[in-house]
Amino acid sequence: MKVFVTGHLGLIGPSVVRTLKEAGHTVTAFDTGYFRENIDADADYVEPDCEIAKDIRDVSLEDVRGHDAVVHMAGLSNDPLGALNEQLTFNINLDASNRLADIAKEEGVGRFVFFSSCSLYGVADTSAAVAETAPQPPVTAYAKSKVGTEHHLLEIASDAFSPVFLRNATCYGISARPRFDLVLNNLSAFGYFTREIKIMSDGTPWRPLVHIDDVALATLCALEADKSAVHAEAFNVGRNDENFQIKDLAEIVKSKLPGATLDITGETGGDDRSYRVDFTKALEGLPGFRPTWTVDRGADQILAWCRGHDRLGFAGATSRNYVRLKQVDHLLNGKRIDTELRWT
Ligand SMILES: NC(=O)c1ccc[n+]([C@@H]2O[C@H](COP(=O)([O-])OP(=O)(O)OC[C@H]3O[C@@H](n4cnc5c(N)ncnc54)[C@H](O)[C@@H]3O)[C@@H](O)[C@H]2O)c1
Q: Residues 6 or more apart from 59 whose CB is under 8 A from it?
């Protein structure tokens, strides 16, 4: 299959490109490149077959022409980035995604795998895990943009155009472009470099977690599945035994770092998202999807990476190379991108 992949220069992108190429697919990769320079120098990086350096707001029919499928990951990819400027989040994540979907349909692309998020469940009743049919009262611009694009894709789904929504859990793990602004990666790197694990809340909010390689596997499965299994379907991507309270994640990391302390500050406010997610539909209905990673093993992977990059120290591991908001601020402050996040 010839696959048009957007957002390949992000955290998850390298894992998706590798997985698709190893499965024999050809990858055209499209990204504006905010994080192009933020790559692990030691990483074994798999290059796409063709690369387009361009803003998703400017994607054209010609870019997408000739592809069998689209995997759409590009965008402002988490709540803090989305909060930079809400209108921009709608322009990039919602309007540009919807336009890309229209273009893909017009160009005869058969399968459109959209990277949505469990964030759209917002503040859910945590007495039960939420399935795909649960209400979606999104609390952030980022989550609203994901809901909006899912709705648009549903509207334009047709016999020839099959959208699939991967509502990914919060990712963890090391890729060729490691990031330490995700909860498990952050707790692990801070714990490793400072021997102090700090939670800036009471630690009770629930989060479902998934390894980036399992998300890449789900992507491959969604691309290769028979249309009848995935057409216009949403799948929560993760595993049922991997919903955690933040304080439990911290305890797992602490147990692997002898001498480390855990400080739960008990602060409230800011981020009040909390949700437990039911992944049964993907586990039973997304052909071939058998996630293999656990948080326990993932924490080992992140700590092993830290050990191998000990020279970075705390300052290095929390620099713009590993924290997306800091990299975007760096580009803004240096006037390399303007306030619309366009290259100057
Ligand atoms: N990381 C997670 O925990 C998680 C969880 C659920 C869903 N997702 C979704 O998965 C996708 C990928 O996430 P990630 O963590 O790899 O994100 P990331 O921020 O690391 O990468 C996103 C990529 O999109 C590119 N991009 C941003 N704006 C663009 C624009 N205007 N034009 C072209 N390219 C642009 C960036 O340059 C970057 O390389 C996102 O859609 C995100 O919402 C991520």
A: 6, 30, 96, 99, 100, 103
